[in-house]
Design goal:
Strand content: 15-25%
Number of strands: 5
Order of helices and strands: EHEHEHEHEHHHH
Number of helices: 8
Oligomer: single chain
Helix content: 40-55%
Distance between the termini: 42 Å
Strand order of the largest sheet: 2-1-3-4-5
């Protein structure tokens, strides 16, 4: 049986390196990219079966990479991994071809389980308590940011807030649910 190839797209080279080593120990052939162009090039060269894509890269959104990878390799399974989770980005990721969406910190076992557990679960637990106002604000900001293709200035105008205020809010970690 041949080695499974996996592509990691993340601008955090330390994270990519650690995750890559852990996956290599589990029998994967790992390729890492920091940009969309590198990811597409590696996907063309090596035809990986799976890809772990960070949602927020240095200069671009990981969501934009998904259709590019799918075009190069229609059978690739893609997973979005992010420290900036929101319902709107999760929905967009799935619409754009991701099979799953995980929030950081996620371990190697969580990532591998996300790839193997792709069947829908109608028995999934529904939370009893609604999200907090702060969480709803974070979700709304992420939705508007997605609608504006990641443009901070346009998002700030849409939300009626100063650009610097929005940037400060975006630098904070997402509010826990």
């Amino acid at each position: 049986m041949s080695q499974k190839a996996l592509l990691i797209v993340d601008d955090d080279s330390t994270f990519s390196s650690i995750l890559g080593r852990a996956l290599t120990r589990r029998g994967y052939q790992v390729f890492t990219a920091e940009t969309a162009a590198e990811a597409v090039e590696l996907c063309m060269q090596h035809q990986p079966q799976q890809a772990v894509v960070d949602l927020k890269l240095e200069t671009e959104s990981g969501l934009n990479i998904l259709p590019q990878l799918k075009e190069v390799n229609p059978t690739i399974q893609m997973l979005i991994l992010t420290g900036y989770s929101s319902i709107s980005t999760a929905v967009e990721a799935i619409k754009m071809g991701a099979i799953n969406y995980l929030c950081k910190p996620a371990g190697v076992e969580d990532i591998l389980a996300a790839f193997s557990n792709t069947a829908p679960n109608p028995e999934a637990r529904i939370k009893e308590t609604p999200p907090s106002v702060d969480r709803l604000e974070w979700e709304h900001i992420q939705k508007i940011l997605t609608e504006n293709d990641g443009n901070i200035s346009a998002t700030a105008r849409s939300l009626g807030m100063h650009r610097r205020t929005l940037q400060r809010k975006l630098l904070k970690r997402p509010v826990k649910e």
